[in-house]
Amino acid sequence: MRTLDITAYHHCTKRVSTDVRTPLARSPADARPGYWVVWEGMRLTGLRLRDGWRALPPAARRAWLLTMAIGLLACCALALLADVWVRGLERSGALAWEAEALRTLERRGPTFSMAIFLEPLGNALLLVPMLLGVASAAVWGGRPLRALSVVGAFFLADVAVGLGWLAWNRPRPGLIAGGIAAPGLHSFPSGHVAQAAASFGIVIYLWMVNTRSSLERVFAVLCWAGAVGLVALARLRMGAHWPSDVMAGVVIGLAWLAVSIAALRRAEALGGR
């Protein structure tokens, strides 16, 4: 009788141990860290973008790629020409006013701390998440060309800016706060301003084509001008750039924005989305 009781006891404990789930017995999906959800979302968005691109008419794909490629070469040539022109102005002494302009801005412009607060408007830490969000919405809305144009507005603008840096190693101004906000990188042209002009510009363009309100379109353009103007002002007030660096950044950014819009409009006219 005692032997039967012991056998029954072992049988019951074995059954309980197999039926009761402990925290260590969770499924692999439950044990995945939280960042997996973000990674999976990015992966699915990338797959949808790939499928959307493949579904586009071949003529629309070719038109977009060709326009972007030719436009990028033109923007690179523009950056090189700007290098040559501004370097010649500097050698001739025509840009001697820039140092005094920075000192005047230091005395009469916003505070240094305010400039630091405004500068992130043209920083990749803000622009990249914003653009990826807009691009993701375009992908899931069935607009792969718009998504690619939004991403390209930021990253490909850097190609022309980087070429300008390679062509001319212009020193940064060290006039404000002992040059504390002037990194040891090339000064001409301003990458922050160029990327802000192109990035905010493509978002504003998409805003304008999706509204029929003239007042809203005017407001959108003012938002673009305000954002780019604040970035330019902040970079100058911090002493990170000369005024001619900022002006060249605006020109290059606007040129690349025009290329991005032209490529998108041309591809959409051929049935692309």
Can you describe this structure?
The protein is mainly alpha-helical. It is 76% helix and 0% strand. Helix 6 packs across helix 11 (214-237) and helix 8 runs antiparallel to helix 10. The termini are far apart.
Strand count, sense and barrel status of the largest sheet are:
none
Count the DSSP helices: 12
Proportion of β residues? under 5%
Q: N-to-C SSE series? A: HHHHHHHHHHHH
Overall pLDDT metric: 84
Q: What is the end-to-end distance?
A: 81 Å
The global form is globular
Binned, the helix content reads over 70%
Strand count: 0
Poorly predicted ranges:
1-31
Radius of gyration: 27 Å
Overall SS class: mainly alpha
Short synopsis of the structure:
The protein is mainly alpha-helical. It has 12 helices and no strands.
Keywords:
76% helix; globular; mainly alpha; disordered N terminus; 273 residues
Helix/strand layout:
Layout: H1 2-19, H2 28-31, H3 35-55, H4 58-92, H5 97-108, H6 112-118, H7 124-140, H8 144-155, H9 157-167, H10 191-209, H11 214-237, H12 243-269
Helix pairs in contact: 4-9, 4-12, 6-11, 7-8, 7-10, 8-10, 8-12, 9-10, 10-11, 10-12
